[in-house]
Amino acid sequence: MPDPSSAPALASTDPAHLDAADPLASYRDRFVIPDPDLIYLDGNSLGRPPLAALERLARVAAEEWAGELIRGWDHWLDAPLRIGNLLGTQLLGANPDEVALCDSTTIDFYRLASAALDARPGRRIIVTDRANFPTDRYVLEGLARDRDREIAWLDPDAVEGPSTEDVAAVLAAHPDDVALVTVSHVNYRSAAIADMPAITSLAHDAGALVLWDLSHSAGAIRVELAAAGVDLAVGCTYKYLNGGPGAPAWLFIRSDLQAELRNPIQGWFGQADQFEMGQGFRPRPGIAGWLTGTPGILGLAAAEEGIRLSAEAGIDRIRAKGIALTEYAIALHDVRLAPLGFELGSPREAARRGAHVSIRRSDARELTRRMIATGVIPDFRAPDSIRLGLSPLTTSFTDVHRAVDVIAELAAG
Amino acid sequence: MPDPSSAPALASTDPAHLDAADPLASYRDRFVIPDPDLIYLDGNSLGRPPLAALERLARVAAEEWAGELIRGWDHWLDAPLRIGNLLGTQLLGANPDEVALCDSTTIDFYRLASAALDARPGRRIIVTDRANFPTDRYVLEGLARDRDREIAWLDPDAVEGPSTEDVAAVLAAHPDDVALVTVSHVNYRSAAIADMPAITSLAHDAGALVLWDLSHSAGAIRVELAAAGVDLAVGCTYKYLNGGPGAPAWLFIRSDLQAELRNPIQGWFGQADQFEMGQGFRPRPGIAGWLTGTPGILGLAAAEEGIRLSAEAGIDRIRAKGIALTEYAIALHDVRLAPLGFELGSPREAARRGAHVSIRRSDARELTRRMIATGVIPDFRAPDSIRLGLSPLTTSFTDVHRAVDVIAELAAG
Lengths: 413, 413
Hints:
2 copies of one chain form a homodimer.
Chain A: H1 7-11, H2 15-20, E1 39-40, H3 51-68, H4 73-76, H5 79-91, E2 99-101, H6 105-119, E3 125-129, H7 134-146, E4 150-154, H8 164-173, E5 178-184, H9 196-205, E6 209-213, H10 225-228, E7 232-235, E8 250-253, H11 297-313, H12 315-337, E9 343-344, E10 356-360, H13 364-374, E11 376-377, E12 379-381, E13 385-389, H14 397-412
Parallel strand pairs in A: 1-11, 3-4, 3-5, 5-6, 6-7
Antiparallel strand pairs in A: 2-8, 7-8, 9-10, 10-13, 12-13
Helix pairs in contact in A: 3-11, 5-11, 6-7, 8-9, 12-14, 13-14
């Protein structure tokens, strides 16, 4: 990999050389790519389908659903916990039996935030940030209203994301009154990485619980939930984990909190002796007590293949390529786009940045539309950001180079 | 169809004649049936896959997910409401824009029950019955605990289900104090049909809201949500609607209540101007405000095909065949199984019975196991019921006859 400190040198590197040296380059062949000329830079919003996911879906439908019929539940019942363990232990730094795949990120976030508030009944404050992902903010607003709590909003730097110092200041302003601190690990717009160990530790020192949204981290950067002492986390599987459109989300609860916290939505999949169908809810022990209704098996099956592929590639290699791709994109931005009035909307320090790069210009919305018409697909994030998602398993350095060519041409014209 | 009043005559009818006269017989060919010798009487738990669902899944994966990538959301966004309208207007007697397909039955039941309690803040009582489906009871227990409410339990006749008189008596015992009445329309064990118009009207007279669980009705019997004045309803799509294992559930909210009730889980799919990602939750108007997180597109696509097939067959023909199949099963039970110590666990009156038949004997659990080993799949419901699910689009009269042969042989042996 080239020296990332030298933007002009890196920007002038032939992307074919970078692709030739990429140890993950062959993973692209493990995905279904019907139009190889299309440059897809939105795998951070919806990842491409693994070949194995299509094969698995066909098998689940024809052999399991049609052939096993109701008997499929003999093994489907385990799927949320089996896949949760694969994801948790291979890609999230969790211990076994701390992760379950179920429901949507919104539902899981609601349940964990709700349980956290219940576990801190005397405390009125929820800390989060204005730049957090919308669904998290909306859920918290509803909970604050319904539970008579108040949100203390961080107002982070748009590029650098919520700083540990800002969190510390808000905690100090509300002594013994913060129930929950919740931020995204990688910001959806800027890709800024929040300091998970430091913020977790600050929250704990203040007596609060902490809930991380890892939707833009899982499968893109190394996450160490257990080592950081994290209480609670959620995330999706349809971005870097290539699980499919609307694939099931996951939740993480640290082992020693699983019995202490109470699932506000008590469903039959979380019930001990589920099929006795008896009177009175008695939760299954551990993370299983956090399952709710009947899980969607088609979605789980596809997600398992995506997660398996990332686990096979290995998070360290994925992270290294994510850094290399984003460094390359930033170098090209600096040399070719900055002169056209673009500003970088992501941190320059690789260790502080996830696997996408935001570039900002006031006409970003219209430029995105024109890029898509040209066969380069990024996404737009209001008000002025073009997000270039550089999903490490499916994006080549040539993709990045060609995308910048197109942006430069459109932006100059 | 033969005269159902004469059990011996009906029981001695050749099932091949009944199949030959069945106007829906050809629908069986619209499903994937890899083992035609297997007798599947559990379509009331997991319906068989429509051929169209397998084709659709392959297309969604290869063409939409792989080919359209993120652009698929241009039409996926509408799916929960589009399919909700198909289901609601064709099969549930709802008006347009009153039904959405989303999340699981448990999650939807929680959200609607929670909203109903919020809408009746001065009232402490929730009315439901001990024989209601477990997940509904468990959710209500959690809500009662968290919201300081109390459940007034009906204790219905095990076969006939909750009677209108019992509901009236409980309402009278708690004047001006019942917030919510919620029962299943068709009981999961006995198939007893509760009187939807009468119970709805009683609840309204008492100032309560009513929430129906239609998991065992939808796609099996005629439902008239609008005509009955129902406030709220939920149901699944993986039973008679053949939507696939863990297919998305649906919720119904009467139009004039949609603005009055508040979704407790405020997610980004329920937000006006979702992709502006702005500050402050402002719900989309109407049923769209009840969407939460990112919907699972694979599950929705398969479910749409199942729903479409039921709508094409027509609920009146489906209901007529459901009655004919259950009448035939009961006649065979009376003549051949009652002498072996079985008791009928379902109402004898066709108008009071859904599309399955329960037969009871103390060794039902063991008998079910032996039936499955023989290639006849019913399911067991504790403590003593064998459920024979006679899903009208995929079950033949010959299936019923052969299943009773097997039961009689095993039970006598």
